[in-house]
Structures are given as structure tokens and as C-alpha cells.
Protein 1
Amino acid sequence: MQHTSTAAAYDARILKLRLPEQDSLKNAAERCSANLVSLTNIGRAVGQQVRIKRGDDPRFVAVYTVNQRNPDDPSRADIVRAGLAGRKRLGTSDELDAIVEATVLDAPGEPAGVRFFEVADDAGDQSYFVVIAPHGGMIEQHTDEQATEVISQFRTAGFPASLWMCKGFGDETKGASDRWHITSTDLHPASFPLLGSIMSRRFFYGVAFHGFARKEGEANIYIGGAARCVRFHAVEQAHDVFLRQQSNRLIAMLLTPALENLPP
């Protein structure tokens, strides 16, 4: 398994959004705007992720996607803007002082506490199958375990397979999802280097695991994507198997037979 970390930061003042220019960020808990020069100075850019820590209470720390440049005068280099939901991610509705850090990831291996890290298990020379879990740990619980089970069963069956996932953990101050959830389509390889190494090549097949807050009347498992043959075989088995066995092994059981019948 591999891991990565780097270091760079700047002091910032987090202000309310400037409306109506920033209407798109009003309800965006995990997105903000920032000064382009300040971002460049720490090796970051719009579209990438940063870690922001409250200046008066370092217990409050979270990851954000810098979704756009500030509408302010460029000379106001320390300004970061976020909506109410974005500021509440740091435990307050007020404007506040903060520290913006380029490194969003912790080193894996810490046994407990607030932490966020990426993991890859990749031989680097196969492009047949990849499985990812961008919201593992306690962000979307069990998704990383499901991905790990899939890669284990694929390799046992003799199929080449690669794995990438992130794991996040919170505490009583802020839960993992409130701190670390980043919309998967926003994830940038500059902020997640191991993801970048996986993304540097195209795979024939890929599966991503996500969790959701199930409401009454909804299904337990949803399967989508463009691989119709995989989806058909999985859906065909999902309902009956789920009633008998709710486990990480279930997902691997659904996917492995489907992919075994696909061409290499």
C-alpha cells in the first residue's frame, strides 16, 4: 500500500459570499472560493482541494474544493469565501480566521482520531479492472471494505485488479462526512496523488462504491453505469442474496461472476 503527503499553507479570513456573483456556492457545504495568487503560492489552483483549519479552534478542520476564484480585488490575497453551509462545516455561521493548507491528506496508519488519507493497491502495469471507494472509513461506512473484498476475490480468481480509496474519520466535534466528504466528480489528482497514478491510464472495467442514506421504501442496493452485462448479472442476483447475507462479501459475489464472463 502507498501513501502521500506534502506541506504548504497560508493564513486566511473566511468571509460570507458576495452575492449575486456567487449564488452557485450558497448551499455548497464543501466548496469555496479563494485568491488565485494565494493558491498558486501553496501549489494549488481552482478545481483542486485544500484543507482549512479554524484559527481559534483547531478541532475544526475540513476539506474543501476551491470551486472558483474570488470576485474580490486580487490584492485581498487572504480572503476565502464560503456560504453558510460551508462555514458551518467549520462549526460556525460567522466569518472567521483560518489556515488554508495545500495538503488535504494525513499519512495512513494512525490508529485513532480525526484523520483522512488515501490508499492504493496497484501493480501499475495492468489496465483490466479498477475498483475505487472515494468515501471510505466513516464517510460512507463499509464502502472501503466492500472495495477491498472485491479486489481480494478478483485476484484470488486470477484476474488483474487495482484499488484506490480514501478513508476519513471524525469525532464528536464533527463527523467524518461533515469534514471529509468531497463530491467524487470534484476529486482532483493534484490533491490525491495516488488517485493521479491510477488515473494516468485507462481501464477496461471499473467499479466505484458509494453509500447513501436509505429512506423508507428505497432499495438497499443501486447498481448503475454503462456496463450493461455487469449491471444485468448483478441486479439479477442482488435482491435474493441481500435478504440472506448483508456483508462486504455480497458485493464481490455479485460482481465477480458477471466479470468472469466478459472478454479480457
Protein 2
Amino acid sequence: MARISPASVGPEPLTAGEIARHLRRGKRSGSGFTACCPAHDDRNPTLSLHERDGKILAHCHAGCSQNEVIGALRKRGLWPESESARPWLDPREARQARWFAQALEDLLELALEELPAWSEERYEPTQALMELRRARKKGWLAVFYRDWRRREPRLAAGLVEAGRRSQRRIWARLAGFLEDL
């Protein structure tokens, strides 16, 4: 089983459960988690994820090698590049992730303002907003953004554009304010 020390991953490492949640059919199983292995075309969960002694253990029961599993997790941003570094995003993609997150947060807050406090429709926007804020707090915005971009590419692209335009308007207002001083 592959092991990685959470201390070497970055600000707040992903737990085995968070990794499983970002993979297809990820769920709790006994003392750990199972999910479809990202290293091969998996229809049934064959990847086991466990946490022991502060390390994440990953094992594919279909026979994928450790290098294949870890490589596939790295491509998804779910495993660090090395023990000493974690280059998640290039600068362009980092900007896109910030724009995406800001636009999504604005959209979710607007939806929650419009929905009555007793409405059951508030559940999904509230959950998405909590997940976004948790991703920001733990330093996992890249994983959150990539997951959305994979699941909903058109929506993610639209939110990136909305965030970019919003930032331009803010900078224009700030420049106008500073000129008036």
C-alpha cells in the first residue's frame, strides 16, 4: 500500500474520506473508504483507502500498481507531486479557480437570499456553499475547482468568466475611487 505523510502534503492534507468523495462511487466501507480506481476503467469500487499512523494508505484490488494509482490520483490533484512540493495549479489556472470560487459563492449566497428560510430548496445551495468555504479554508480550492470543471465544464467556464468580469469591475471602481482622492 502507498503511504504519504499528511504533514508533507501542504496546509491541510486531504483525508482518505475526502479523496474517496472526489472519486466515482466513493463511500465509507468498514474502517476506511472504497471508490472506483482512477488508474483503470472501473465500474465497481476496487480502490481501498485507509488512514493509519497519520498516513493515507491506497490499494487497488484489481491489480493496478502503486505507481499507476498514485499517478492517476496526482493527475486529479488528489495526491502530492512529491514529499517536499505540491505544485497544484499554474498561475493561470489558479486565477481561474479564484474567479470560479468567487462567482460560485456570490451565486449561492444570492440563491439563499431569495429562498424562504423554511424552504427545503435551501439544502443543496447551503451544502455547496459549505463545501466551497471548507475547500478555501483547507487550501484545497484547486481540487474543488478541478472537480467542478470535470463534472460541469460549461457551468465552471461560465462561473470563471463571471468571476473575471466581476473582478474587472471591482478594479475599475477602485481605480476611480483612487483618482478622486
Protein 3
Amino acid sequence: MPLIDNRTELITLEQVLDAPTSSHHSGAVTNSSKSVNPVLRLAAATAVGSLGLAAGGTAGALVAMEITGSMQAAGVPLGVLVAGSGVGAVAISWWTRRAGRRAALAAGYLVGVAGAVTTVAAVSLQSFSLVLAGSAALGVANAAVFLTRYAAADESEAGHSGGTMGLVLAAAATGAVAGPNLLGPAGALAHAAGLPHVTGLYVVAAPSFGLAATLLARGPQAPASTPRSSTRQAVHRANRIGSPAMRRALFVLGAANLAMVATMAIAPVHLVRHGHGLTNVGIAVSVHVLGMFAAAPLWGRLGDSVGHLVVITVGGGLISLAGVALATASPAHGVAMTGALAALGLGWSAAVVGASAMLAESVPVADRPRAEGIGEASMSVAAGGGALLAGIVVATGGIAAVGLAVAGLGIGAIAAARSRRLHSGARSWRVSPSDAGLTG
């Protein structure tokens, strides 16, 4: 329903997101309006785009079963999506340096539209290879959803990057929570349109990604990175490679995602096998997801106030606590298991928000897109490894072994973040031309 002001002029969503907050008396634009409104646009794009994530994560296994009739193929689309997300993160970061951040993110979402349409066609044609192609394209949109938090950091005032990144990351909760619950209604919509019921979430994903791309493309575009001389290129390359802070941030991102994915790859099955109903399992997973996203703004603001290292430490501690709980709690004790998953979600959120802000601050501004792409790619690699290793570990040592491994990852994240070399990282990336061997 359109908004109408006292002159009965129509105000669109675009105008609401773009309009600056002005002084009541003078109409002067405040400093906060310059940063808040672009961030709100990014959050809106993330919220809308995240509705499409359930297509690959939830419906991918159903589509694989529909076409192949084999349980062994059920996890393949998700694996391809994860790989596509890693490649997509690098591709989007590459395009950001040439076309600007918002244009690159919008392009990533448009690739996701193509992926959703391809998958719908694949089900109609009963082509599993086309399903995998569509899943890879959906992975690119997945990367766009989560890379948007770094665009929010660009729009923030100095010292407030954590809060804005947390706000945009929290917007992803819209799709993370609502998306899977649309499985039934979206299937009915697809059936009414003459499409297979199982394609419902893909039918929702296409316009969701398209609207997210529109919101980004129609917003104010930051200029693309300007070309540098060969000297500047070599200096900044040395800066990126030589930054201990960047390497520590990448380790924390990978460790947190590995711990989360490894646990969630086996926790629902583990709960079902020990007598918990699907409703209770769904509640446990929902609590975990809410912990991942809903608390992100709080972690971001805390990091802006007391330092991102503190937030990473808290996150690593919560991940370790979750691991110990998984290793020691009785599988029949649903409350304890749900508490462990909640702690894991909160720990993941704190570690990712803190490490993302640390990563953004550890390299020169012009080199952030590349560093951020590497960060997302490392998270994708960790996700793929976590899903694979979880089954092997639980088969050999049970859920206790997985819990202890998760606890170790949390401790490792804290140790890496608090390494002595990290504290000199903010200075170490400033490499002079002489240090890079470019004098003379």
C-alpha cells in the first residue's frame, strides 16, 4: 500500500529509502542521514534477497530426489551451491573494482534470477545437470546476500562499521527464518501456475533476487576503484599479503563457519534419531538461526564500543561452550541440545561480525573488495569441508567427537585473533615503495 503525505502525493519505497532525514525547521541534511539511508536500502535488499536462499538450501534436496529418486543425490545441489558461492564471492569482488560495489552486488543477484529460472526449467525437463547449473548460479546470489554487509561498512561513519554491518547481516534473518516456512505456500503457488510443486521456492526466489537487484541498482552508486600505477599496485599487493590482521580475520571467519556447518549438518538428524519430533527439531534449528542473525547488530555495536577483538573472543568462547555442551549433554535432553545450538548461533554471529569488521579495517580501502571476496570464499570452503567432515567424524567418534572439534575451533579462533602479531597488523599493512623493492 503506497504511503501518502499531506499533499496526497504518492511516495514509493524507492523514495522512502533514498530520502534524507532533514531538520524539521531548516531542511538541512544531518550527518546521520547520509549514512543511515544507504544502509537501510542495503538492509532492505538483503531482507528481500534472503528469501531466495531457501530455494537452494531447503528445496535443492527435494528437487534432486524428485529427478533422480536417489537419497545419495540429495546433497549434491547444496554442495554445488556452496562451490558457486565461493566462486561468486571472488567474481563479485573482482567486478566491484571495475563497476562499483552496488552494481556488482546487483549483478550477483541477477545471476541468481537466472539460476532460479534454470532450476524450474530443469525440473520440468527432468534434467539433473541443469539443476546443478542452476544451483551454481544460485550460489552467486548467496554470495551477494552476505557480501552486502561490507557495502554497509563503506556507508558507515568512522568507528561505526560494526553496527552497520550487523544491521545488514540481521536483515538476512528474514529469509533464513521465513524462507523454509514458505515451502508449502510457494509449492501451492507453483502448482496453481502449472509448475511442479517442488519448484515453489524457486518461483519465489526469482522475483526476490530481482527486486533485491533493483533496490541496489537504483541506489546511489559509489565509484569503482580507480586504476593505479604499477608502483601502487605492487605496494598494495604487498600490503594485502603482509597483513597479519587480515590473515587472522580470515582464520576466524573460516573457523566459525566450519564449526557452525559441521554441527548443523548432523544435529537435526542426531535429534531425530534420539526420539525428538520434527516440531521440536524445527524449534531448535529456528532458535539457532535467530541467534546467528538477530543478535548481529548488538555484536556490531559492542565491537564499535570496546573493540572487535573483544567480540571475536566472546564469539569463540560461545562456540567452545556450544561444543562442550554437544559433547556432554544427553541426546535425549532436548532443552540442553537446543541451548547448545543457540550458543553456537550466537557465537557464530559474534565471530563473523567481529572478524568481518576487522577484515574491512585491515587493508586499504581500495583493496577491500578483493579481501572481502577472499573472506567469503574462505567461509564457503569451510562450509563445504564442514559438511563433508562432520559425517566422517560422527561416524568414527559420535556426536561427542564433533562437539570437541567444535570447541577446539572456538579456542583456535580466540588464539588466532589474540595473537601478538595481530596487534601490529594495523601498522604492518602500510608498506612503503622501498619495502616493496620499487625504489631506484
Protein 4
Amino acid sequence: MKYLIVIFSVILFSCGGNVKSKKIAKADYGNDWPVSVEEGTVKCIDGTYVVFEALGKVYAVNDSAKNESVMNEHGWSDIEDIRLDDPAAPETKVNITPILSTGLILCK
């Protein structure tokens, strides 16, 4: 029985006690859309961690989420994996602000 309680506690913590989310799509942002998927859900977990979920995968967006993923082995991918290259500036990526700012607003 104690084993089941521990498992349940780990699952509850890893899912976050407080999650706010908002669906966003390329159609809403046009040329400012920063990632290679057409749509997804931005989430703020526990008022701190901004993640983006798309195609069944979770991507850490802000540094807090990236650190949390590594420290607690959440398995979140880095948003850089799907972030688009900036055609106007070779070897750089487009601005991630549309996703990050949405997530930070959810965290307030």
C-alpha cells in the first residue's frame, strides 16, 4: 500500500499541482510563429515552468522548465528542437516570444 501512495505522489508532483494552459496556432501568429508544428498548447506549471505541448511531446520553453526537466528527469524536450531558423539571419533562430510571453502571462 505504501508503494502505491509513493507512486501516486510522484505522478501528482510530476504533473504539477497547478497547471494553466492555452491552445495556440500558427494561424493566430502568422509570420511570427516560431516553431515547425502548426499548433500546440502552452502551459504554465506551478507558476514557474513554461512548456509547449505538441504532437504528443512536451517542450521546455523557459530556463526554469529546462532546468526542472533535467533535475527531475521529466523528459521534456528542448523547444530548440522545433524552433525555426531565422531566414533573415543565418545561423540564428526566430524569436520564441509568442510562446514564451503566452506562457509567462499564464504564470501570473
